[in-house]
## 1
Amino acid sequence: MSKINLIIPAAGTSNRFQSTIPKQFHVLDGKTILEHTLSAFKDIQLEDCLIAVNKNTEEKVHDILEKLSFSARTVRGGDTRAESVREAFYEAKESDITLIHDAARMCLTRPLIERVIEAAWRYDAVIPAIPVTDTIKKVQKDRVIKTLTRDDLVAVQTPQAFKTASLRRAYEDYYDKSITDEASLIENAGNAVHIIKGESNNIKVTYPLDLEYVRNYIRNNNN
């Protein structure tokens, strides 16, 4: 039987969220954002689940896992998201596929998770994405250098999926601290990253304004 691991980086302090607590522990509809996120994976058969935490939030995450009866382990994260994922990757059990999902991206659906997993059997790396609708300009300080063509741009989401063996080789041969995400690492290793259709609701809570969007999502999907 195939083995799938899930890694959730949740060690960040959410500076842009402008709150005294990290955004993944903000409560919506009686549950933290992290609880909502984990609930999306509750019926997905996983070999192992690693949640990267910092020392100040490890106990809180353990309480959440006990409340949900969700089988997962915690690992101390690094200074950046990429370092946290790497720490968790090397602590995880052996698997065929590794899923990586943002802790604060709570509005994903099971069909999206299943589409990502299905595509991961065919490709080394799979990322969901949606078309960019805004006009995007490349700037230098306060001057526009170039207007980019929207047809060539997508907004990337998670969960992202990787063949575990390919991701391990990329970590061993191409990792450095300038890497911001695992798809970039696979690209640096010379392997293709395959795009599948994401979901417009699958936003990442980044700013306080995003909370109104996810409140509406919960309200509409609980009816």
## 2
Amino acid sequence: MMKGFRYFLQLSYRGTAYHGWQVQAGSQTVQETVENSLSVILQQQISTTGCGRTDTGVHARYFIAHFDSETELGLQKENLIFRLNRHLPDDIEVRAIHRVTRDAHARFDALFRTYEYHITRNKDPFMADLAWHRYGYLSVTDMNKACDILLKYNDFTSFSKLHSDVKTNNCRITHARWFITDTGYIFIIRSDRFLRNMVRAIVGTMINTGTGKLSISDFEHLIESKDRNNAGMSAPAKGLFLTLVEYPYSLSSPGKA
């Protein structure tokens, strides 16, 4: 019988200084930084499993990781959150800790993930690492027509990083939309899974639609081609945020309740 207790850790982080979430030899990552703080504060060796992996420079407003503890945290949780945040660097925040059942899994139990991509029309030194600054008008109407086409398909090989080791490039996108803001544009997309570099490739390609370089029919044809070389460039990582991860159970109470 498995011993110990499993917890979900809710995090936010600014990815500018990190080579993504997942531990990589010789590179600073969010996972390694979080595991080091957990191990120091809990005085035991802690390993985490994330809900996915964000690439270098990508941010997360809402990220879930699970870890196992030899002891039950119980009423210590609020104090633990305070101590962890004091130990962690300023660009990583622990927002909540939830007790879950021993078989709960941050990655495999996730039903949907939502990303946002931010574009700013104005040069802003305070947003330089948090949005893609680009000049020029974009047709949100045309880009949302491309979004409607996106929802018709399941195979997104055309937006997948080349030579990745995934078994399938099928995803179920349930929402994709562009919005105009006071300073630029926001793209929101929700799917049951995402391929490596997928959102950034979609954004880069839709920009070509928004500027008139790519017609709506051409956008549909490139999806059907299942060839990454036919899609547009990948948008810069700095504008991408993971904003929500959904599970089949509530994280507001202990266990899978």
